[in-house]
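Ticket reopened. Same input as before:
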Amino acid sequence: MISANLSAIFYLISGVLFILALRGLSSPETSRQGNFFGILGMVIAISVTFLSIGNFSSGFVYVLIFLLIGGIIGAFIAYKIPMTAMPELVAGFHSLVGLAAVFVAISAFLNPKAFNLGSPGNIKLGSLIEMSIGAAVGAITFSGSIIAFLKLQGIMSGSPITFKGQHPLNALILISIVVVTYLLCSTQSANLFWILLAISFLIGFLLIIPIGGADMPVVISMLNSYSGWAAAGIGFTLENTALIITGALVGSSGAILSYIMCKGMNRSFFNVILGGFGATDQNSSTRSKEQKPVKNGNAEDAAFLMKNASSVIIVPGYGMAVAQAQHALREMVDTLKKNDIKVSYAIHPVAGRMPGHMNVLLAEANVPYDEVFELEEINNDFANADVAFVIGANDVTNPAAKTDPQSPIYGMPVLDVEKCKSVLFIKRSLSPGYAGIDNDLFYKENTLMLFADAKKMTEDITKNL
Amino acid sequence: MEIIDPFIFRLSIFILSIFIGYYVVWSVTPSLHTPLMSVTNAISSVIIVGAIIAGLAGNSDNTFNTSSIFGFIAISLAAINIFGGFLVTQRMLAMYKKKKKDK
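Engineering reply: fixed in the latest deploy. New output:
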């Protein structure tokens, strides 16, 4: 058994290692080392916990068994999961952090002696407040992430679910969470603790159902942040530095990502959270599209255009992930490069269903990361490029965001695809994107629409090159 | 002299860590935002520390009580995250490659 002071120092060390783990992600070269620091920090934290308890009784064996069960499941998932399913995986993982926080809080509430927090019915006030916050935020993270997971997985419809009185109801529940927490802390009643958990689960569920599928990048980042705050709340309860540092890191990380995602859509955080965006007005979009002519092409036309180009910019979007077209795309690009055509990739901040999703998919297809550019880096290059190849993206290329103040996406930063000499658009149909707005780009003189599955079309183009 | 409540020290660590997180995360390159999420997932599962304490809280003649059962389940949940999170991050990071020079 090691002293409390010594173990506190070790917890501090693992906290520092976690900071270094995030620091490593500033460039791909240092990132693998960063991940190693993270693992080391975790090993230290777990070993120190064992040593500080120093009780290697039968309970210890069970701890190892449960640890192993979880570890095997986790490792299995990590190796099996396809890269296109990363958003679902991360949402699922968030729900587990949330639930673990809830369970630790329940356990501490039922047996406060084990954590040096007082006795049942007489828990130290500060600890009880921290515990309630950790449990409530954990519960919200859990149920919110479950909904996000179901929406991403397609089990639940991605369209927003709204009903009358939704916002007043949510506000009422949030207020009652505060009231119940207050009553819980003054009465120490176990029933109130269970009520607090129940309404927190409920609000997590209600907060996410009105948010549409394509706003998921914000939702995932936000839940990432919540899982951090939940961990920090528990960290205060357990008086554990590693947990407090990590909670703060993860909390601010998720908050920054939410901010970046909101900015990528030019929407305020509250606008996203209040939901309902993307409830498509089908009638208006159907009407307008029948009136305008569209140039419809096939793989041969596309191959011809690209063969005669000297530079091509590829704009991937969520549709590429759905069609699993990243490998086919890479093969097409290889063929283009053999013909001495310069190829680069342009990634919009909100392309895909989570931050950085497209980058991972391209990396999986062996696209070197120095050929992949962010919006600000590449946007001026469109004017000099011959062909823009838009695969599975839509709203992020819509010039209406720059020209039409009436458009719901007006002001959103978009890729200047229309400045290219010609634009190739792979899409399954003319249907509008998630924002439910028509894309003028489809009807432009220099746009060629390729109506097909992204993967199949890309393969066909490669054959024709 | 009055003694400062240890809570204040923990609060200080917390606030300063938020600032560290703020600056560190802004320096993360956007192309690594997905690995950032999976690794933050893994490290926030350091909550397993609390789960272990909870799991070992059963008394000597009875390993399982309501409190420790919640602890044991939480250990498994957090372990899924720890192993899953770090391994999937490693898998992703291994894919990020630079352009080959010899081309």
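The mean pLDDT of chain B is 88. Residues 66-93 of chain B form the longest helix (28 residues). Please confirm and we'll close it.
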